[in-house]
Amino acid sequence: PKSSWTGLMVTFPDGKIVNNRYAYETLIEVVETVGIQKVAELGLKHVGLDFISKTRDDFYNQHELPGGYLILTHSSTDKKKRQLEEISEKLGLELKVEVV
Questions:
Q1: Cβ count within 10 A of residue 66
Q2: How far, in Å, CA of 85 to CA of 100, rounded?
Q3: Strand 8-11 relative to strand 70-72, pairing
Q4: Which residues make beta-bridge pairs with 50?
């Protein structure tokens, strides 16, 4: 059975809060705010695929981003939290990421 619904809330150092209905929407908005290209250049992987790429996968669900990029959102809320924390750490963003 599926787990109960959870979302993500991300607080930027300037006080901006991103907290959408679905965790994947929050993930996408934060990546777009930070800079898709910057995040893509980190080379993060998920299920053996690039987290952000320009290549569509036949199996895993990806969401389209501006600039022809695709983001892999097929993961648990906790995994999305860890991905955002890793992005924050590698880019020195000091984001506060919470499961809500």
A1: 7
A2: 15
A3: unpaired
A4: 45
